[in-house]
Amino acid sequence: xxxxxxxxxxxxxxxxxxxxxxxxxxxxxxxxxxxxxxxxxxxxxxxxxxxxxxxxxxxxxxxxxxxxxxxxxxxxxxxxxxxxxxxxxxxxxxxxxxxxxxxxxxxxxxxxxxxxxxxxxxxxxxxxxxxxxxxxxxxxxxxxxxxxxxxxxxxxxxxxxxxxxxxxxxxxxxxxxxxxxxxxxxxxxxxxxxxxxxxxxxxxxxxxxxxxxxxxxxxxxxxxxxxxxxxxxxxxxxxxxxxxxxxxxxxxxxxxxxxxxxxxxxxxxxxxxxxxxxxxxxxxxx
Length: 286
What we know:
The protein is mainly α. Helix content is 48%, strand content 6%. Helix 2 (29-48) crosses helix 10 and helix 6 (128-144) packs antiparallel against helix 10. The longest helix has 21 residues, at 3-23.
């Protein structure tokens, strides 16, 4: 086995092992995914702000990754809670990642260990397939956890791939999913178009695929956050890009957007369109 394969397996093992530790404290897959999302986003932002990238990102210095590293105990817990609250007021993708964010890891020592684990890796240079495998694996485990109710937002990936292969989306075309859940159809569409066996993309087509191909709706904030991070880890979208997953209910309002393909597994039921799903995944009616 190559060193790269060993390193990949080691990273995946560390992330999964830490989930086991947190479950002993009553932290479920969904809660772990959320905390991992916040911390990974900040760590990758830190990496992209340094050479060779030197990008100016919309993360305030007082709430960036370096503001977390080195803090311990009550100081870390207090700062992390404040950081989540303040970043939730941000605009664009940053705000959508941190909207209504809360610290679910109540033991500061374990939060510190998770930060240290993430800090030791260079995530920006890690292959999208590695990062994606870690995150998609956790999403699937979360969907299998019947108590979380997350299964309603996760369509089996084998089914998605089969549907995408039937549709055979083309480069420079737009794709929408009006009930996008954790973004599975977008990932499969991206993989199909980027696959050299299907198309040989030029620079313009690659740029369009990354930034302008996908549009979605997801009304549950936590699920929308996971979708955005899932796509970001798979190299779709950007820190400073437009938020292409809308919180609006696609059944109630027409945004005027028109696309070339609809790839979706819409929710089924007998409820009227005036029944809403709140941020906890529960249904409220008007």
